[in-house]
Amino acid sequence: xxxxxxxxxxNRVPVVVSVPHCGTxxxxxxxxxxCPKQLQCIDDTDWFVDKLYDFAPQMGITMICAKxxxxxxxxxxxxxxxxxxxxxxxxxxxxxxxxFLGESLYRDQIPDENEIARRLQEYYWPYHNKIRELLEDxxxxxxxxxxxDAHSIRRVVTTIRKDPFPDLILGNQDGKxxxxxxxxxxxxxxxxxxxxxxxxxxxxxxxxxRSFGNPDAGTHALQLEMTKINYxxxxxxxxxxxxxxxxxxxxxxxxxxxxxxIQK
Length: 264
Hints:
globular; alpha/beta; single chain
């Protein structure tokens, strides 16, 4: 399977946490098509986000984490290749040919339509279908369920915007993917934390959040983007236990409040 499932401990709660960009594996059958220099460090990875959230199963939350790098196929992009934003920022493709710095990932030949279709079948749809299965299963027990997509990004990515990103960015497609009480619960906790927080700017939630968020049907979806310096070292290369512990405490508080709200 192209993902790992971490089942909840004890009684489960109506939440699924997804970490679609923590994967670093490149399949052997396509590895030689990539530039060797790029493979020395699989950049654009949401490093250690799965570790950052590994407290979640102890709270009864189910986790799904990707095994393969987003350079193989990006699980948070539209399957037909439609752009998420149209404001001039760099947007890596469904099967990226360049990294966020604009550097080429492949030696020469980029994936053609047949190869993209194969990767959709092998890696993309299994992840999406498993999330759908997990949410439907939770709906058998709970009337309201939450899909939570966890991400991180470098503090500065000038190809997206010149200014540094805020610490935390909550995305819900301008309120379309979750009911307002859940959105407000998260914003209240985050804004009381001392971190800088923005809402739907510059990220509104990717394809996963937009696909699974259907508040009218009792399925809510939120995306949380955070800058890596909040849980990694200053070079954004290594996990920083002290910074991570502070962030984990905030995330645990956020989920505790979310669980109270969604189970009312």
